[in-house]
Amino acid sequence: MSVVIDLNSSAVHAGFSFKESPDVSINPVYYNNDDPIFDPIPSSSTTTEPYTIFNDGILYNASITPAFIRHIYSQLNVSDESLPLVMAQNAWFDRKQLSKLSEIVFEDLEVPIFQIHERQLCTAYALAKPDVCLVVDIDSDYASSTPIVSGKVIRRSITRSHYAGDFLGACASKLLNLDNDENVNYSTAYSKSQEMSDIIHAALDTSDNDYVTLKGKNFSHSFTRDVINKSLLEPLFRPHSSSLGVPQDALGLGQLVLKSLQNTNTAPAALLSSLVVQGPYASAPSLEDALLSDIRLYVKDHQLAAYRSTDAVERITTPWMGANILSQFKDLNVTKQMYSEDPEIFARRIFG
């Protein structure tokens, strides 16, 4: 049995390798008290701003990482740190981050057996597409396009932007003419962020309706479907159209995909016929069609096909499921002794 952890900035999912789905979902923020408080639920009197453990989808805060992993263990009711550990992290981590994480796992936590995998590759295995696919993520603080070929991430071909869920939250605030008061406590800011997230999901999930009513605590406004698409769907593909001061050359989803294709040696037809869309903001029923339509503006001679799970939970837990599958491959295990003899073993496996 292994502990399997999927690391991501919008939520960390964790569970056991003998399960089919993760047991816990954790908000990766903390209060920086004498003893850090993780996954805090803000009260109306909360004034302390929490710190994030992630940046651009990558676990970067090394000083808090050991305590955070132990917190994950506590949420799983795991008291035995001698269990094998399997982690998935977004594919654009670098050698320095990989080296620090493996050092923490083996030396601070003293885990005896460790695997680390790229989240997008885990998705490919979960969907039985490790030979070739292109994974498009739409998360809170990033959108990305990651090609997978012959069971490997084509790292030079990964493309990313920050125009994703949080950006749509700003678009929703503009559409609703809501004030952006920066002098608010964390509780208020957190509640507003959650409210914007709920509004975006509700708006995009009802894309077949002619009119959409966006409701919050202090407002209720109805908009035509054309207005919703222009204000909340089009900015994913044309960020500069949001009138939020986004540079004209900012890349949208379709352009991220095209840029990925330009940097690969693989025939684009294979990747374009196996697009996978995932993430908490990939919920819009029309999103697949919108993505394919946008790509067709640039690529006219290839057959396009996209897959997006109809299950909202699966769209965000598929990387965990893939990491669980890979945990069964014992030849991917690295023991503490192997690491001690060769600290660069992970870097060679992943970076070549």
From TrEMBL:
InterPro entries: Actin, ATPase_NBD. SUPFAM superfamilies: Actin-like ATPase domain. It holds the Pfam family Actin. Belongs to the actin family. This is Uncharacterized protein. It comes from Pichia kluyveri (Yeast).
